[in-house]
């Protein structure tokens, strides 16, 4: 019988699953999405491939899970920052700055790399829905600002952010890219510069 390294079987399974997901992220970032398989993930986590199948049916399922988790974590951090800004203009700026800060930290690479591989339509649709949901704070801020088409404008802003992130990935410094991107979005929205105050302390 396998050794249980936790007070309960449920906790042991949760720990094993977390170890597999952490290993899968490492495999993804080091070797790309095509390298994520039960065999490679199991080896990285120090488990047999047969043990991996107790948690995940395929490499695609592992990819879907780690990409989904990355998108949820990303969305939570963006939403928390945006909600602390007091004005719609401040919320838009917070969205831009937080997105670029997360990108500079490398947090986006899991979502970007992992979302390139899923083969089935349902998985691609689920990931697209998660990405769409992550921009909800931006769309809400645009609507509050009086923008006539928040959905399209949010997509255009995310397009600009994608190019800014590409510059960061290419070696440009975040502290140089972020102010220029914020200024570009302000000009595009005809938003005057105002200090971005936040609710509460800090």
UniProtKB/TrEMBL annotation:
GO molecular function (one): DNA binding
UniProt-listed Pfam families: TetR_N
Annotated DNA-binding residue span(s): 37-56
Transmembrane segments: none
SUPFAM superfamilies for the chain: Homeodomain-like
Coiled-coil regions, chain positions: none
Domain HTH tetR-type: 14-74
Keyword list, A-Z: DNA-binding, Transcription, Transcription regulation
InterPro entries according to UniProt: Homeodomain-like_sf, HTH_TetR
PANTHER family: TRANSCRIPTIONAL REGULATORY PROTEIN
Record's protein name: TetR family transcriptional regulator
């Amino acid at each position: 019988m396998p050794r249980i390294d936790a007070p309960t079987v449920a906790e042991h399974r949760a720990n094993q699953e977390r170890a597999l997901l952490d290993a899968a992220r490492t495999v993804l970032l080091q070797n790309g999405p095509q390298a994520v398989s039960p065999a490679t993930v199991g080896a990285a986590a120090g488990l047999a491939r047969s043990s991996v199948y107790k948690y995940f049916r395929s490499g695609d399922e592992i990819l879907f899970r780690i990409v989904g988790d990355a998108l949820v974590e990303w969305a939570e951090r963006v939403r928390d920052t945006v909600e602390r800004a007091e004005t719609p203009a401040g919320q838009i700026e917070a969205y831009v700055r937080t997105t670029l800060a997360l990108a500079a930290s490398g947090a986006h690479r899991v979502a970007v790399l992992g979302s390139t591989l899923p083969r089935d339509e349902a998985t691609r649709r689920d990931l697209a829905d998660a990405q769409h949901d992550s921009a909800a704070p931006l769309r809400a801020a645009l609507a509050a600002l009086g923008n006539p088409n928040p959905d399209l404008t949010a997509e255009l802003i995310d397009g600009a952010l994608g190019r800014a992130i590409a510059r960061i990935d290419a070696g440009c410094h975040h502290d140089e890219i972020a102010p220029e991107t914020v200024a570009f979005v302000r000009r595009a929205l005809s938003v005057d510069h105002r200090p971005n105050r936040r609710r509460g302390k800090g």
